[in-house]
Amino acid sequence: MGACYSISAKFKIKDEKKFIGLSNSYIEEKERLGVRFADKVNRSTFKGILETIFTQQEAQFKKTGELYQYHSDFDTCYSWESIMYDFLIAVAPSLKDNSSLYISLDNDEYTLIVQGGNVV
Prior knowledge:
The protein is an alpha+beta fold and about 120 residues long. About 30% of the residues lie in helices and about 35% in strands. A 6-stranded antiparallel β-sheet has the order 2-3-1-4-5-6, with helices on one face. The longest helix is centred in the N-terminal third of the chain and has 17 residues.
């Protein structure tokens, strides 16, 4: 049995090239360990990275000025929570303060915030 996730990412990017580089390094490391991500996703774009980590099923993506917003509801294994958390830690140095990731999992929810290049 899997977990039902609802995620909302609100990211402001300091450096998009750095974000994409850190993201791809993280994804490649996890793939070497056997994690399977979405196929046929363009991982050279910000949106493509988010589709890779947060699934591309029925996702909503919006860019307003420097704010990127991404929302997705999906079912996957319970361990995917750690993939999302570790991803945010990996890319935090490329995000501006107050970037956030809201995760709702079955009957639990929390928000991760980036401050000073770290997740708090």
